[in-house]
Amino acid sequence: MCRHLGWLGAAVTVSSLVLEPPSGLRVQSYAPRRQKYGLMNADGWGIGFFDHDVVRRWRSAAPLWGEASFESVAPALRSHCVVAAVRSATVGMPIEASATAPFTDGRWLLSHNGVVDRTVLPLTSSAESVCDSAILAAAIFERGLDALGDTIAEIGTADPLARLNILAANGSRLIATAWGDTLCILRRDDGVVLASEPYDDDPDWEDVPDRHLVEVSAKGVTMTPLDHPPKGSR
To answer: Can you tell me the distance from the alpha carbon of 49 to that of 108, in angstroms, rounded to the nearest whole number?
Structure first.
């Protein structure tokens, strides 16, 4: 349910991350290679990036493959920190731009790849949409990204069927969780990519083990195991 990508490093064009790779998010919107749930991601797309310290976003409920205007502008958009996503909406969730990642609290950009029972999430009035991902994002923002690992482990225990792959960035940090779906990392000379699946066939892509938290910063890359839900709950 969705594919996403995050970048932290030197300033690059959004097009080089999303549109130009042979299996980038545009291709993943209609032909993902590693997606376990759903066949395509045609229910919207979103691009978020940092313009110095200012969060910028461009979101749509239309499929990314038909966005000629975005294709025209994307080569001119440059940033050192990007979060992008294409969406396959959970059954019963609204298809609207406000339900499409990345979500923001004004400081962080956040994408959710997965599904979660909304009844296990805390009530919040700050969610951008009534969809599960938007409510989850608001709950994470309210608790704080420094507690992301604990938050995901607790929600995963409350909803054993949840898939909770989170990707978040604030301009200097890129944080992700692998919980129930694929996550990959590519360490380039000019920065680091975290993505649901590789955007090309570079042999340096690595799979992130399930139930792990990844953090990228100026200090490097760290991977931390997350607490497992009770045995036999999945």
So the answer is: 10
Find out whether 9 and 188 touch, Cβ atoms under 8 Å: yes
Per-residue pLDDT band at 115 (split at 50, 70, 90): very high
Reduced 3-state DSSP string for the chain: CCEEEEEEEEEEEHHHHHCCCCCCHHHHCCCCCCCCCCCCCCCCEEEEEEECCEEEEEEECCCHHHCHHHHHHHHHCEEEEEEEEECCCCCCCCCCHHHCCCEECCCCEEEEEEECCHHHCCCCCCCCCCCHHHHHHHHHHHHCHHHHHHHHHHHHHHCCCCEEEEEEECCCCEEEEECCCCCEEEEECCEEEEECCCCCCCCCCEECCCCEEEEEECCEEEEEECCCCCCCCC
Residues 36-46: pLDDT tens digits?
998 999 999 99
Q: Is 2 a catalytic residue?
A: yes
Q: What is the distance between the alpha carbons of residues 115 and 108, in angstroms, rounded to a whole number?
A: 21
User: What is the per-residue pLDDT across 128-158, written as a single tens digit (0 to 9) for each?
Assistant: 999 999 999 999 999 999 999 999 999 999 9
CB atoms within 10 A of CB 126: 13
At 45, the amino acid letter reads W
Task: Give CA–CA dist 164/199, Å, rounded.
Answer: 21
Whole-angstrom distance, CA of residue 165 vs CA of residue 3: 10
